[in-house]
Design goal:
single chain; alpha+beta
Amino acid sequence: DGGAREPVTISLEPRAAVLAPIAVTAARIECAVGGFADATLAPAAGVLMEEAALNAERARLFVRTYPMVYRFVVRTEFRTDRDIWTRLRIDTIAEASLSDWRYRPGTVVYRGASPNGEIGPQMHVPELADVADTSFQRHHCFRYAGRDANDSTHAERIDFVPTSDVRAPDIEGSLYLDSRTFLLRRATFRLTRAALLDVEVSYREIYPGIVVLERIIARQGLGVSPQLVATIDRAAGLRGAGLQQRDGVVLVERRTSSALTGYRFLAATP
């Protein structure tokens, strides 16, 4: 009409699709071919994994653009059949946000240094970006396990196991995604085809849509020498009598907990 035109600003607000509750019965996933194990639940699981993959790519881009160093306090404790936790050591470590590791069958367990400096077999703890990677999804079966009734934040649970052709130690477990944002809130990982190792991971949102590791608790059953247990007991003021031994070793549980105490950016900041 020849008059002055005023600019129009359009603002978009991200909204996650909220899934209706789905009843799911717990059962072992039979996993021959990677993907979603139950076709009837695949659409719901597909929405979750698609949104989770987008969040994972956003997080990966974030740490590439703004590399960080995390600071953790690591506590190592032992428990014997007396059901007494004895703290062995406390360490403070720094860990870079960027990692060169990408999942491939046979690479989950490696020989290296633990957070407290011990050299031996270690397990890569996958991040959401690793789980959303095509290689991980080709070699794992996923099943939507419904809304977690024990989680006050209303998390959607996805279980996964490695495919039957993966012969090396690998990872199975569960992911718990926020029902409204699809951000990863916590996860559990278990090592397969190897000594028992359970890992619980919780995450913290540090920027909108960006989560980082907040706490890692790893539990492992071990057989150690009575001399080591005696050393631990002396440090704790205990006596080693009454411990169960098998084949000359004492059965103990080791718990390593890593808690995020801070982080700093190496260069640019958001």
